[in-house]
Known about the structure:
By secondary structure, the protein is of the alpha/beta class. The protein has 2 domains: 5-130, Cobalt-precorrin-4 Transmethylase, domain 1 (3-Layer(aba) Sandwich); 135-235, Methyltransferase, Cobalt-precorrin-4 Transmethylase, Domain 2, CATH 3.30.950.10. It is 31% helix and 21% strand. The protein is built from 7 helices and 10 strands. The strands form 2 sheets. It has a 5-stranded parallel β-sheet, with helices on both faces. Strands 6-7-10-8-9 form a 5-stranded mixed β-sheet, with helices on one face. The longest helix is centred in the first third of the chain and has 20 residues, at 73-92. It starts with a strand and ends in a 13-residue tail after the last strand. The structure holds S-adenosylmethionine. S-adenosylmethionine is lined by residues 13-14, 101-104, 107-109, 134-135, 138-139, 179-181, 204-208, 228-231.
Amino acid sequence: MTGGKLYGVGVGPGAxxxxxxxxxxxxxxxxxxxxxxxxxxxxxxxxxxxxPSVGEVPGQERLFLQFPMTKDPDRLRPAWDVAFAAIGExxxxxxxxxxxxxGDPFVYSTFIYLFxxxxxxxxxxxxxxxxxxxxxxxxxxxxMVPLADGxxxxxILPATYGTEDLKRVLAEFDTVLLMKVSSVxxxxxxxxxxxxxxxxxxxxxxxxxxxEKIVRDLRTIRNDRCDYFSMVVVSRKDRNGFLQGxxx
Length: 248
Ligand SMILES: C[S@@+](CC[C@H](N)C(=O)[O-])C[C@H]1O[C@@H](n2cnc3c(N)ncnc32)[C@H](O)[C@@H]1O
């Protein structure tokens, strides 16, 4: 076991064999694995990805931490304070703590809050990031649509924060990835239809897992069936017909 260090560890987009060797090694070496989940009744997606590869590690603590799914700082702050206190207690006792995240720890991840506050809370504690395969790359591979080549440009947007600037972004970029799209699908479909890009868009949920789903006609998606782990990819170029369904 190593001592007094904080790790942010990405465990990949869903398929356990898309975890990196480094992630597995670090998770088997640390004293504590900090595991975020939405509530005490919820399973952690990140842990369900990592657990088969990490297995049982004698003496290791699995520290489950609750983070409600909300943007409301009045609900988030207290949850963070409890989590920081639990993590801080272990770090200051000289233990190594790995906070796991689905995908990559630096892409829209809960770990970023911890990373931002860690240096002021625990100035002596070193931090290491173990990158993970982000859902961004995973989704592109699942739908067989290259994201960018040569001079092409990619935009990545968190769709939950509104679609006001979506038209501008769609006009400016060659490939647009809409993350956290599940709650705003009707608005997204409307904009894509208006811009005549609806046939250049794909919806992908739970990419790389056994439940992966690809929808080519976004108009058929029922809003109540949208999964949180879903993304819409809009690509101006259909290189070899994969966007239209070749090979599916
Ligand atoms: C909180 S962000 C986490 C992103 C993660 N850190 C990463 O690097 O992929 C959650 C969003 O990522 C996207 N996402 C994550 N995993 C996915 C998957 N397996 N398939 C499709 N989208 C996924 C969805 O848009 C989801 O709403």
